[in-house]
Amino acid sequence: MKFDVILIGGGLSSLVCGIRLQKAGRRCLMVSAGQNALHFSSGAFGLLGSLPDGTAVQYPLEAIPSLPAGHPYAKIGVGKIAEYAAMAPGFFESCGVHLVAAAAAADPVLRSVRNGFRFTATGTMKPAWLAMSEVAFFPTEEALRDSDGVPVESALIVNFAGFLDFNARFIAEGLEKNGIRCRLETVRIDDVERLRKNPSEMRSVNIARVMTREQNWKGFAYQVKELMKGEDMVVLPEVFGLGGELIPQWLSEMIPAKVTYVGTMPPSVCGIRTQMRLKEAFESAGGTFLLGDEVLDPEVEDGRVLCVRTSNLGSMRLVADSYVLASGNLFGNGLTAAPGEFREPVFGLDVDYPQDRSDWYDPDFFAKQNYIGVGVKTDGAFHPYIAGRVVENLYVAGSEVGGCNSLAEGSGAGVAIMTAFKVADGILGRQEPANA
Amino acid sequence: MQEKNLSSNNFEQCIKCTICTAYCPVVAVNPAYPGPKQGGPDGERLRLKNKYFFDENLKYCMNCKRCEVACPSGVKIADLIHSARRRYSVETPGLRDRVLAGTDFMGKAARPVAPLVNAVMSSKVVKDVLDVMMDIDRNRKFPKYKAKGFVSWFRKNAQAKQEGYSRQVAFFHGCSTEFQHPEVGQAFVKVMNAVGIGVQLLDEKCCGVAMVSNGLWAGAARHARHNVSVFKEAVAKGLPIVGVSSTCIFTMRDEYPDILEVDNSEVRDSITLVERYLFELVDSGQVKLVFKKDYRARIAYHIPCHMEKLGWSLFTKALVQMIPGVSLTVLDSSCCGMAGTYGFKKENYKYSQAIGEHLFGQIKALSPDFVCCECETCKWQIEMSTGRTVLNPIVILADALDVDATIAANAAPAAAAAPAAADAIDG
């Protein structure tokens, strides 16, 4: 079967790249071995939260020139990153994904993106670039305590009885550090109570499925109102947005206080919704998406991929002009690790990793872990290498690209989106900027 | 250090991410079902310690495989659940389950008196009795049995001329083609013959999927062994095994080895669905399809769960879209809730309809001329629940095919057949 582009992986990076290409008239096939990391999304996208040395970043674009040469952003160049960053919200909006950014002046360009802050499931504030509409996201750390100009002094944190993936105590601790008095309450909704029969499957997405029913979210809002004792803010688990952004909006309107939705432990309800919207956008533009299938047995000759095959389609040769590998890092099986080495399992691409195994990880679990930064070696246009030889019609995008520790930097989604745009432009033959 | 998995179902790879649960149609509606993660890899750890951890509520699993399609770690979750049912369940299938599972036996028994059986089975009194006595839900509509099956039609009307074709396929027609929908088999023969391919029948038995669902493991394995040995003979003669029901094909390719432990490795790659078989022939330029110029239809495509698992829906889409007058809308992939015999059962009926609600809503909103789908039990469910006609893709292709032009395009060398071949779609 013949396509213009075959994309391997079905997560954020692959979908962004595939949608751009498909909308530009390229016939795309996307092959995804199971669902992806959007299902674990915090609900916000980071561009660059801190420099490799740990220094906090307020204006990500301003910080990019100081990144090391091997960093994916350095390869793309700050000019292009600024252009892509300006384009991103509109791009997602056109796919039905509404994202919010922290306001920033358009001029100077390097200050046109400013980090806002998301309030996390463990009660901390983390820098972020864009957030899904209902997620707790504030332009500044101080804005957490502001409700339309009125200071927030007290908060009511409401959880469902028996729901273990929303830790109200951590959240209260975090809010109290910010000087907000907290009270904890739980509610019981019949449909959610039924889920408790099976505590190990009482997870965010199952609650979210029953909360799409009108009687349930309305009943929830009434119960919250009953429980309130004049608090300025109500904190709720983010389990209302599976079908769309409307139910969280309506809930916020029904509850007479500032309503803040805080992400739960995975799966991420707004992340799943975003994934569904992006997949729909890709398919409705005419793309073919194969879920639950795995690419194997590629044929590579003279630095070019000739074809790939998949486990479901067997011996059938899938042929394309260009191929994009965006199948994730260790977590998504885009890379695999054995005691002595890291491997890229589909093509056997060259992988960049510390030779000494003791440099792969820090025994302190919460310290910066080098294995997170392991990725495929690429040139300036994100072509990978096999045994030192560049593969001309193959591109690598997303967390599979080496050169940065996205977890430590808070740049995972940013790298996914920027490399996707860059690779799409490369395939479409668009002009390279002078500084790339 | 463990570097390799120990089990074929990959359960050691489960990282407890719960993505399977997010896509399980049953968990969403039936709280008695423990769910794919708990029933699959989590439960397996306990069951390996002690069989008493087996939970009979795993019978609520529809075996739709959506958990496996979603799993990022390649865990065969539904296989784990059904293998556990096979190994540990102490519930014996009752009369109802045996009747529902015996698709071929019941078909043969009903055929001589088909009009009577159809009339009786649609009577309210009988349905009430079945509901009370046998736990078959009174709201369920039964598919109609045909007095004349596909095989007798084939022997009388088609068999004689099949030897005349240079290329041949072995046709696995399945129970529903034989007993309820012979038109599907007739469409298959029409299309194959038009492109110059002869059809041979097999000494087939029911693929066994209904017996797997109903816990009749020994019977299912017996059918599997029989079919595999019949397929081996056909494959030895160079014939591919081509079917029209996604569920039969999926079962014979994957459930035979994974759940029934029947080795099909010699024939697995030769077992295929007509949409894939035909697409590959067209795509490689070996055959041409010419369609009627005046064929018009607005079609909604429902991808059955087992078609999702096979990963072959792109072939159906490509084939149906080759018909010039068709506008095809692919429905948001979701389970219809029927799952073979599952939706007939009184204890499941309510959940079955709740699971299908999303799909029914889409179909009603779209109001297509008809729905396209490769699975007969999805067809029964959608027709009952939406009032829309559901056609197997091969029936649509056969209806839209310009038979004479197709025969001409495939018989003559391409250059000589210019007028007909001008409209032909090739790869």
Quick synopsis:
The complex is a heterodimer of chains A (436) and B (427). Chain A is of the alpha/beta class. Chain A has helices at residues 12-23, 60-63, 72-76, 78-94, 168-177, 190-195, 204-211, 214-227, 246-254, 269-284, 406-409, 412-427, and strands spanning 2-8, 28-32, 44-45, 99-101, 116-119, 125-128, 130-132, 137-138, 146-147, 150-151, 154-160, 181-187, 233-237, 258-262, 288-291, 295-301, 304-310, 319-325, 336-338, 341-343, 351-352, 375-376, 385-386, 389-390, 394-396.
Strand content of chain B: 5-15%
* Class from helix and strand fractions of chain B: alpha/beta
Low-confidence stretches of chain B: 414-427
Helix count from the secondary structure assignment of chain A: 12
* DSSP summary: helix tally of chain B: 23
Alpha carbon gap, first and last residue of chain A: 35 Å
The fraction of residues assigned to DSSP E strands of chain A is 15-25%
The unreliable regions of chain A are: 432-436
- Mean pLDDT across the residues of chain B is 91
What radius of gyration of chain B results from the CA coordinates? 22 Å
Distance between the termini of chain B: 50 Å
Strand order of the largest sheet of chain A: 15-2-1-18-25
Strand elements of chain A, count: 25
What does this structure look like?
The complex is a heterodimer of chains A (436) and B (427). Chain A has helices at residues 12-23, 60-63, 72-76, 78-94, 168-177, 190-195, 204-211, 214-227, 246-254, 269-284, 406-409, 412-427, and strands at 2-8, 28-32, 44-45, 99-101, 116-119, 125-128, 130-132, 137-138, 146-147, 150-151, 154-160, 181-187, 233-237, 258-262, 288-291, 295-301, 304-310, 319-325, 336-338, 341-343, 351-352, 375-376, 385-386, 389-390, 394-396. With 436 residues, chain A is α/β, with parallel strands linked by helices. In chain A, strand 1, helix 1 and strand 2 (28-32) form a beta-alpha-beta unit. Chain B has a four-stranded parallel β-sheet with strand order 2-1-3-4, with helices on both faces. A four-stranded parallel β-sheet of chain B has the order 6-5-7-8. In chain B, helix 15 (246-258) links the parallel strand 3 (241-243) and strand 4 (271-273). The longest helix of chain B is centred in the C-terminal third of the chain and has 21 residues, at 346-366. The chains are: A alpha/beta (436), B alpha/beta (427). At the A-B interface, helix 7, helix 10 and strand 15 of A face helix 1, helix 2, helix 3 and helix 17 of B.
